[in-house]
Design goal:
One of its GO terms (biological process) is regulation of DNA-templated transcription. By secondary structure, this protein is of the alpha/beta class. The protein has 2 domains: 4-125, 3-Layer(aba) Sandwich (Rossmann fold); 129-224, Orthogonal Bundle (Arc Repressor Mutant, subunit A), CATH 1.10.10. Helices cover 44% and strands 22% of the residues. Helix 6 crosses helix 8.
Length: 227
C-alpha cells in the first residue's frame, strides 16, 4: 500500500513539482493551498506525512503544526523560503520533525521523507527496549545497561536519556527538551539542560569532550545520533 503524503503549499509551481515527484516515486498524495482546507483534508485522509509551507494565505504554518500536534504525531516536514534561525527553532518547537529551505533538491526532500517515515514506523514498533551500540535502555524496568553493567542514573538523567533515544537522529530544540523532561515552566532553564547533558555525556560517551551520541546543534538544541 502506498504511503500518503499531504502537501500544503500555496505556490502552484512548487505544489505541482511535489505532486509529480511523489507520484514518480510511488507515493500517494493529497494537496491544498491553505490551512483551513488542510485541516479538513488531514482529518478525512489521515496522511502518513505532511510537507508544509509556512507562508500560507490564511495564516502561519506554525499554527497549523500546533493544531496537528494536539491530534497526532504524524511526521511534519517544513518546506519554506524562510531561512533564519528563529523560524527554524520556532517550527521545531511547535512540533515539526524536519525543516528544509527553498530552493531545494527533490532527491534530498525524498530522502528526508523516507527517513522520517522510517523513524515514525520504528517508534511505533519499538516500545520496550532500545539498544544503541553497547548502550541498552529498558523502558519497563527503567534499567540502563552500558557494556553489560547497570548504569546509575538520577531520575532526570534517565528521563533525558530516554527522550533522546526515543527521538534518535532528530534535532530537538532546547525548549522542547526542557518542556518534555522538566515540564512546563522550565523552558528557559538552559543551565539545567547544559549541566545534565554534560553529566550524561560523561556517563555514556567514550570521550565526553568529543561526543558521538549526544551532539550539540549550534543555536538550536541537541541530536542523539545513531549511525
Amino acid at each position: 500500500m502506498k504511503q500518503l503524503i499531504q502537501i500544503i503549499e500555496d505556490d502552484i509551481s512548487v505544489r505541482k513539482l511535489l505532486e509529480i515527484s511523489f507520484k514518480e516515486y510511488n507515493f500517494s498524495y493529497i494537496s491544498c493551498e491553505n490551512r483551513r482546507v488542510a485541516m479538513t483534508m488531514f482529518l478525512s485522509h489521515q496522511p502518513d506525512l505532511i510537507v508544509l509551507d509556512l507562508g500560507l494565505p490564511d495564516g502561519d504554518g506554525k499554527e497549523f503544526i500546533k493544531s496537528i500536534r494536539e491530534l497526532s504525531l504524524v511526521p511534519i516536514i517544513v518546506l519554506t523560503a524562510r531561512d533564519d534561525e528563529s523560524e527554524i527553532v520556532a517550527s521545531l518547537d511547535a512540533g515539526a520533525d524536519d525543516y528544509m529551505t527553498k530552493p531545494f533538491f527533490v532527491n534530498e526532500l525524498l530522502a528526508r521523507i523516507r527517513a522520517n517515515l522510517r523513524r515514525h514506523s520504528d517508534k511505533e514498533a519499538l516500545k520496550e527496549v532500545y539498544e544503541v551500540g553497547e548502550l541498552k535502555l529498558d523502558i519497563s524496568s527503567r534499567d540502563v545497561i552500558l557494556k553489560g553493567e547497570l548504569l546509575k542514573l538520577t531520575p532526570i538523567e534517565y528521563d533525558l536519556l530516554k527522550y533522546f533515544i526515543i527521538n534518535s537522529n532528530k534535532t530537538l530544540t532546547h525548549k522542547q527538551i526542557l518542556e518534555e523532561v522538566w515540564g512546563i515552566g522550565y523552558q528557559n532553564e538552559m543551565q539545567y539542560l547544559r549541566t545534565y547533558v554534560n553529566t550524561l555525556r560523561k556517563k555514556i560517551e567514550i570521550n565526553s569532550t568529543r561526543p558521538k551520541l549526544i551532539k550539540s546543534v549550534s543555536g538550536i538544541g541537541y541530536r542523539f545520533s545513531i549511525d
